[in-house]
Specification:
Elements: E1 4-7, E2 14-15, H1 19-29, H2 37-43, H3 48-58, H4 65-85, E3 89-90, H5 94-103, E4 107-111, H6 116-126, E5 138-140, H7 153-162, E6 170-174, H8 177-186, E7 189-193, H9 200-205, E8 210-212, H10 218-225
Parallel strand pairs: 1-4, 1-6, 4-5, 6-7, 7-8
Antiparallel strand pairs: 2-3
Helix pairs in contact: 1-3, 1-4, 3-4
């Protein structure tokens, strides 16, 4: 059995109604930088300051530090506005899957390309907390590490916080290619899920161990296949 399951948030465990995609695109395009769909997909799972920097450059706008900071503030404002209009909710079957994993002794952590100031109100809106009486064993954000995905640091910090000691017994799942890259860089079992906006063919083209319909399928997957890795 695996020791730790580390899941992405938006599009993987939480339905944010596509708000992150829309907010990120708008924040960049309002600065005069057009955003191609493929570029948006490529940078979605990364730290959002890094994503804004890259998307501005790809759109032909120089990512000066002051502009990046301004666009990040705009991204946060757009996201907060979207969450007020349509609060995020847990994706179907996710709470039951997390409960099943924890009941079997598997620690569950969330890792995300968001910073603390975005994640904290999102989790509060969901009513999720950390600890024996909560829904999660750890949450790791880009505020906690020197670099976000595809660097392995968030997964490794989740291991540290939950007491997991063997990367081969860690499963990391997410809805973007960069989630899979981070999992592979960490040495973990790399699982893509189809609940986000990344098409199956893009996830299957990346280095991965499995592509599942949802994190809701992870308990069955680890029960049947984890020990074979």
């Amino acid at each position: 059995m695996i020791q730790l399951a580390a899941f992405d948030i938006a599009g993987t465990t939480v339905d944010d109604h596509g708000a992150v995609y829309v907010a990120l695109r708008r924040a960049v395009e309002e600065a005069g930088a057009p955003v191609a769909d493929a570029d948006l997909q490529r940078w979605m799972g990364t730290d959002k300051i890094e994503a804004i920097t890259a998307l501005l450059r790809l759109g032909g706008v120089s990512p000066e530090p002051a502009l990046v900071a301004e666009r990040f503030d705009r991204f946060r404002a757009l996201l907060a506005e979207a969450y007020r209009a349509a609060p995020p909710v847990a994706l179907p079957g996710i709470v039951a899957a997390i409960d099943a994993l924890r009941a079997a002794g598997v620690k569950v952590a969330l890792t995300t390309g968001f910073s603390d100031d975005v994640v904290e109100p999102l989790l509060a809106a969901l009513g999720w907390s950390i600890g024996a009486d909560g829904q999660l064993d750890a949450v790791v954000t880009t505020s906690d590490v020197p670099a976000g995905r595809p660097a392995p640091y968030m997964i490794h910090l989740a291991m540290q916080r939950t007491g997991a000691t063997d990367v081969r017994q860690v499963l990391a799942a997410g809805d973007t290619v960069v989630d899979l890259e981070a999992a592979r860089n960490a040495g973990a079992i790399a699982v893509g899920v189809l609940t986000g906006q990344t098409p199956r063919e893009a996830l299957e083209a990346a280095d991965h161990d499995a592509v599942l319909d949802s994190v809701a399928d992870v308990p069955a997957f680890v029960g049947l296949a984890a020990l074979a890795r």
